[in-house]
Amino acid sequence: MSYSVGQVSAFAGVTVRTLHHYDKAGLLSPSDRSHAGYRLYSEADLVRLQQILFYRELGFSLDEIAAIFKDPQVNPLERLRARQRQLSEEIARLQRLAEVAERAIEVQKTGVSLTPQERFEVFGEITFDLSYATEAELKWAHSQGQREAMARATAHTKEDWRRLMGEAAAWRAELLAAFDEGEPSDGERAMDLAEEHRLHISRWFTSCPPDMHRRIADDFVADPRAFALVVPPSQQRPGLAAYTCKAVHANAARHAGGRTDSEEEGR
What is the spatial distance between Cα 248 and Cα 226, in angstroms, rounded to a whole number? Predict the structure, then answer.
């Protein structure tokens, strides 16, 4: 029994144009023609079409399907196993993206609602990078410190943010002065500034022991977005991120050899 293009289109749920495309690509040429020259598909053609649609549903390209049909040495089972691995990887990737989207929603909830003018007044040139904040939230999702920091950030009032950012701006001015004046990164002045930054985090977000502070400072060097939250790009100098990171590490080493973290925070 033979079927017209229109009938096959209706059976298979594909357009006539798609069937013509498969014909031109050499994937599915009708076995016969009517007296008027119209394409006629046999039962065997329909079976082949089912195979094509099956492979297409799994994401195979037309070239890959053609290779399976044309080369008798090609093992369809191996192709399917390879595609299964690819699909599993894609599923895992999409699950990660879904988690990132969920974290982004949580990140967006933090902070208070500000008008553009108020945001500039409070944050100045410090910009909120959603991509970086989301990655950080995802990276430290199981960290108690991250959860506490997010909760406290959410609870801050507009006045809290004004005080917080004012304190950060004053500290930043001191850091830039120390750097511009050539103070060594492991000197007393630089280490004291690193300590002020550590205590600033503890006051406003979450307890920040020296080891955690080192990891935060390592991000200053590894990711420009992290350091931009501390010093806006317009105020940065070449080497400043590394200088700040070294000062934090020196301060952490000072803690390890002297006062305890709890003693220092109780001052």
Answer: 15
Do residues 68 and 122 both lie within one domain? Answer: no
pTM: 0.50
Task: Count other Cβ atoms within 10 Å, centred on residue 15.
Answer: 11
The boundaries of the domain holding residue 42 are: 3-74
Residues 116 and 228 in one domain: yes
Cβ pair 151, 106 in contact under 8 A: no
pLDDT at 259 over 50: no
The three-state secondary structure class of 26 is coil
- Determine how β-strand 32-33 pairs with β-strand 3-4: unpaired
- Of 137, 130, 135, 167, residue with least CA distance to 151: 137
Q: What is the largest CA-CA distance in the chain?
A: 99
| Alpha-helical segments (H) within 130-187 | 130-139, 144-155, 158-180
d(CA 60, CA 160): 55
For 99-129, the pLDDT digits (tens) are: 666 655 555 555 555 555 555 454 454 455 5
Residue 266 pLDDT > 80, yes or no?
A: no
pLDDT, average across residues 68-96? 79
Which domain CATH number covers 149? Answer: 1.10.490.50
Residue from 176, 248, 172, 182 nearest 215 by CA:
248
Query: Between the CA of residue 155 and those of 104, 148, 227, what are the distances in Å?
Result: 18, 11, 24
261 is a domain residue: yes
| Residue 264 or residue 206, greater confidence | 206
Indicate whether 66 belongs to any domain: yes
Whether pLDDT at 250 is above 70: yes
What's the DSSP call for residue 39? E
Euclidean distance between CA atoms 119 and 162, whole angstroms? 10
